[in-house]
Design goal:
alpha/beta, two-stranded antiparallel ribbon
């Protein structure tokens, strides 16, 4: 999550979607911006103000509630979506490498016991389960939950795609009047095979597609919207 008062910009960081790369890039554009906090005229918003106690990967509705609807609606709010199968693959191999003890050392302000137990289970499961079975059981945080409010209304205006990070982020920023020649860093970039190499069992693939149908639809929508933005920018060149 990144906030810039100067740019009137708020980036919502959905997990395993290139969040750190975008945060670092936006900080280069406006070094006075904030990672994982929002400073308003009257208060500083931190993890204490988030429903789930985490501000770095806070959902849009949590931030909107914390900073107030009027302030939120004046911001250019953007995020990145990733195909849920790619997120599952990335999460599986990431958690597979995590040291079990590190799950017990996480920090925060709220729900720490619950979070530590979930973290321990998340890092243990991929060490003993094949990816297909693990994916069916893993309670992955969906992109939909990060960009829609609890009534089902989308509250993030711009959605780029992680697998088209450079071109989509540049286009979104240019579309809202922000230009930069800086390169976007790639942090924790996945080096895995194509998604169809991991979920070869038709039943598992079909079950996962149904489970994450809203995220698949959201990815397809982001693709369509980004095509329109790219087309608009190319016409204006």
């Amino acid at each position: 999550m990144y906030y810039s008062k100067k740019l009137s910009l708020l980036f919502i960081g959905s997990p395993k979607s290139g969040t750190r790369s975008v945060e670092k890039y936006l900080m280069k554009i406006d070094s006075a911006g904030e990672n994982h906090s929002v400073t308003l005229d009257h208060k500083k918003i931190t993890s204490k103000d988030m429903h789930f106690g985490v501000v770095g990967h806070a959902r849009a509705w949590e931030l909107k509630r914390a900073i107030g609807e009027d302030v939120y609606n004046q911001l250019q709010v953007l995020g990145l979506v990733r195909h849920p199968f790619d997120k599952l693959i990335s999460s599986y191999f990431f958690n597979k490498k995590v040291n079990l003890l590190s799950a017990l050392s996480m920090k925060g302000e709220k729900r720490m016991l619950t979070r530590k137990i979930k973290g321990l289970l998340s890092s243990l499961a991929p060490k003993i389960l094949p990816i297909g079975i693990w994916a069916l059981l893993f309670p992955m945080k969906t992109s939909y939950d990060y960009f829609f409010d609890r009534k089902g209304n989308r509250i993030v205006k711009y959605l780029g795609r992680t697998d088209h990070l450079n071109e989509d982020l540049f286009a979104i920023l240019r579309n809202i009047g922000i230009t930069s020649n800086l390169n976007i860093p790639h942090i924790n970039q996945s080096q895995h095979k194509a998604r169809d190499q991991y979920f070869k069992n038709p039943w598992i693939e079909k079950t996962l597609a149904k489970k994450y149908s809203r995220d698949i639809e959201l990815y397809d929508l982001a693709e369509k919207e980004m095509q329109e933005i790219h087309k608009k920018l190319n016409v204006n060149n």
